[in-house]
Amino acid sequence: EDQKIHKDEL
Amino acid sequence: MNIFRLTGDLSHLAAIIILLLKIWKTRSCAGISGKSQLLFALVFTTRYLDLFTSFISLYNTSMKLIYVACSYATVYLIYMKFKATYDGNHDTFRVEFLVVPVGGLSFLVNHDFSPLEILWTFSIYLESVAILPQLFMISKTGEAETITTHYLFFLGLYRALYLINWIWRYYFEGFFDLIAVVAGVVQTILYCDFFYLYVTKVLKGKKLSLPA
Hints:
Chain A is mostly helical. Chain A is built from one helix and no strands. The radius of gyration of chain A is 6 Å and the shape is elongated. The model of chain A has no long low-confidence stretch (mean pLDDT 65). Chain B has helices at 3-26, 34-47, 58-81, 96-108, 115-129, 132-141, 146-173, 178-200, and strands at residues 143-144, 208-209. The interface between A and B is medium-sized, with 8 and 20 residues.
């Protein structure tokens, strides 16, 4: 999940 | 989602729309660096490939699609529709000096050595310096139209608001992404000189022109 976290930003 | 992140996104959107409208209404892209706009199109393309692999929210997906579509529309207007007005002679920044080192760095310093992650990292690094051809063009011609300075202001404000967002997220969510933060700081610093001129000149009703 950590890898996905920054993808919530643009 | 906090208020800084949201206003950052909206500021980014405002910048993109201001630029599109400026070109569309004046039927001219004079004073705009096509190279910077090409780099931004590359930034969005390489960053938002996760549109195909993961869904975060309707907001996230729609904003990504809008950014990508607008950046391609801008490039189309500059290099196709209003090509005759494009100031290529003044848009002489060598983009390979940005793309090559940034490409190398994204291979060396990333969160995970996988294609999508390297491309995401590349886009973060590239975004931080993608405005340089535009700033170089302004320093070369010594001036910028007021509407172009509004575009630059919102574009710079967006990353500055993201910095506050990251401080907020660090304290309240324990979220910290070193790559994004360092690149975001670099990106914001590049605008500082411009912010100064914007506040001291443009906001006082004067045109942005640099001393010869």
